[in-house]
Amino acid sequence: MQQINTNLDTSVPSARTQYALFLERALAFAIDYFPFPMLGLFTLITLYKKGYNFTLAQDALCILGFLFLFIIYHAIFNSGGRVSLGKFLMGIKVITLEDQPLTFKKAFIRGFVILVEAFTFFIGFVFAIFTKNKQAVHDMVVNSTVISTREKTTTEILVVSIAGTILCAALILTKYYAFFLAPSLQEKIALAKASQQLDQIALLQYVHKEEFGYYTNDVLRLSLMSGDTVQFQRDMQNSFYRKGFRMGAGEDDFSITGYAKDGKRTEVHYSSKNAK
């Protein structure tokens, strides 16, 4: 009787496995990942508008905190046979090369490596185009791959291809702009603080006009009206360069001009004429 060979090679998915398209993976990743840094940035801007002042290190920790939430999200929804929102919409999922669901530990490590790749223009994803089992760098680390979970129609494939190509091009351009052209997060926050401080001074001008019947050129007078002179002066020092700040007041109008401490000395301006 012929002996049956039970030493089957389970190191790769079966021949029937349909690997996910690179552009499917790109769209799924965008849906899953980008809400987290955007929420971090929105939170920082909101807190600064409410008067909270943070150092650059604290800003970075806030953003990293939201990115850590992405790792947790990735670990939960890509382990135990589950799928993340982006992968569900694209009809794909992560498995091991032994055709098994990822453990939470492996999914956590995979998400962490993805986060590291985010600081290298996501170059690790490109490996999924060329490697034998369509593995990106984060797949190689935990011995995983991404497969399709359902058949796609020709229309779906066309839509995914167009949308994925646009996304990849936008991502490359966005990363290039962010690294080489765009003002840093700290510069954006400094500019927002300066604009907020202008609004506070303008509000005090309106209060002064209502109480005394005229606008004033005296910043010290307005600081006394703020209720906390020390904090007002501190906010002025943190928001504007001393040189170049000026305030003009007439009988019916006033204007305020300053240079934000954003590294580029961006001019910020408020005019009661424009606010009417």
How are the SSEs ordered, and which strands pair?
Layout: H1 22-33, H2 35-49, H3 56-77, H4 85-90, E1 92-96, H5 104-117, H6 127-130, H7 137-142, E2 144-148, H8 154-181, H9 185-212, H10 219-225, H11 229-239, E3 246-249, E4 254-259, E5 267-271, H12 272-275
Antiparallel strand pairs: 1-2, 3-4, 4-5
Approximately what portion of the residues adopt beta-strand conformation? Answer: 5-15%
Order of strands across the main sheet: 3-4-5
The secondary-structure class comes to: mainly alpha
Largest beta sheet, briefly? 3 strands, antiparallel
Helix content: 55-70%
Number of domains: 2
What is the overall silhouette? Answer: elongated
pLDDT < 50 runs, ≥5 residues: 1-10
Question: Could you give the order of the helices and strands?
Answer: HHHHEHHHEHHHHEEEH
| β-strand number | 5
Radius of gyration from the alpha-carbon trace, in angstroms: 27 Å
Q: Report how far apart the termini are.
A: 97 Å
Mean pLDDT: 86
The tally of helices reads 12
